[in-house]
Structure to design on (190 residues):
C-alpha cells in the first residue's frame, strides 16, 4: 500500500487500540485530573455546623461557638477563601470598622479569637488518592489571613462531597495539631 497523505501514514503506523481510549471499557484506577477535582469543588458554600475533637473525644468548638456562620468559596481558577465567625453576642461585641480610639482592646480580642478569614490559591494533594468526591486539598500558600502565622502557609483539608436530599454537602476535615481535629459541614449554594 502506497500512502501519500502524511496523516494516514502516521495512523497506519500507530496501533489505534492503544492510541485511542476505548469508550466501551470504563477506566480502571485512572487517576482523576486535578482540574476535574477543582471543578467539582468550585462554587460557594454556606456553613452548616462545626465540631471539634481532641484525641478523638468531642470537645466544644471554643473558637467558633455554638452557631457560627461562614462562607467558603472555591474557584475553577484555583483560588479559595473562607470566612467564619461566631454569632453569640457575648463573643461579638458591637464594634465598627475601622477601630476607634475608644474601643476596648478586650472587645477586639474577643472578635479575633472567635473569627477566621483567609484566602489564597488552593491545590489538590496529589500524594494521596483523590477523586471528585473525596481527597485532600491544601489551602494556600495563603495570601491573606487574619491569623498572622497562616500567611504564606498551607492548610491541609480533607474534602468529601455528597448529595443529600437534592443538596450538595461538603464535609471538610482538618488536623489542627496537638491531637485537635475539626470537622466543618457546608452546603453548596451555587
Ligand atoms: C452537621 O451537619 C451534617 C449535614 O447536615 C450532619 O450530617 C451532621 O450530623 C451535623 N453535625 C453536627 C455536629 O451537628
Ligand atoms: C451597634 O453599633 C451601631 C453602630 O455604631 C449602632 O447603630 C447600634 O445601635 C449598636 N447596637 C447596640 C446593640 O449597641
Ligand atoms: C473516591 O476515593 C475514595 C477514597 O479514596 C473512595 O472511597 C471512593 O470510592 C472514590 N470514589 C469514586 C467515585 O471513585
Ligand atoms: C485526612 O485524610 C488523611 C488521608 O486519608 C487521613 O490520614 C486523616 O486522618 C484525615 N484527617 C481528617 C481530619 O479527617
Amino acid at each position: 500500500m502506497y500512502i501519500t497523505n502524511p496523516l494516514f501514514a502516521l495512523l497506519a503506523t500507530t496501533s489505534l487500540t492503544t492510541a485511542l481510549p476505548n469508550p466501551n471499557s470504563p477506566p480502571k484506577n485512572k487517576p482523576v485530573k486535578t482540574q476535574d477535582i477543582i471543578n467539582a469543588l468550585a462554587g460557594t458554600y454556606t456553613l452548616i455546623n462545626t465540631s471539634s475533637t481532641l484525641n478523638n473525644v468531642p470537645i466544644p468548638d471554643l473558637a467558633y461557638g455554638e452557631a457560627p456562620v461562614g462562607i467558603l468559596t472555591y474557584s475553577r481558577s484555583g483560588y479559595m477563601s473562607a470566612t467564619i465567625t461566631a454569632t453569640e453576642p457575648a463573643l461579638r461585641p458591637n464594634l465598627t470598622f475601622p477601630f476607634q480610639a475608644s474601643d476596648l482592646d478586650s472587645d477586639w480580642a474577643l472578635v479575633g479569637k472567635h473569627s477566621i478569614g483567609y484566602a489564597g490559591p488552593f491545590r489538590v494533594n496529589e500524594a494521596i488518592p483523590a477523586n471528585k468526591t473525596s481527597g485532600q486539598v491544601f489551602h494556600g500558600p495563603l495570601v491573606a489571613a487574619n491569623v498572622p502565622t497562616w500567611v504564606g502557609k498551607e492548610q491541609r483539608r480533607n474534602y468529601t462531597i455528597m448529595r443529600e436530599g437534592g443538596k450538595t454537602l461538603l464535609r471538610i476535615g482538618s488536623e489542627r495539631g496537638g491531637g485537635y481535629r475539626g470537622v466543618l459541614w457546608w452546603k453548596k449554594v451555587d
Q: What stands out?
A: Residues 6-19 have pLDDT under 50 and may be disordered. The domain at 6-188 is CATH 2.40.128 (Lipocalin). Residues 94, 96 surround 2-acetamido-2-deoxy-beta-D-glucopyranose (ligand 2) (CB under 6 Å).
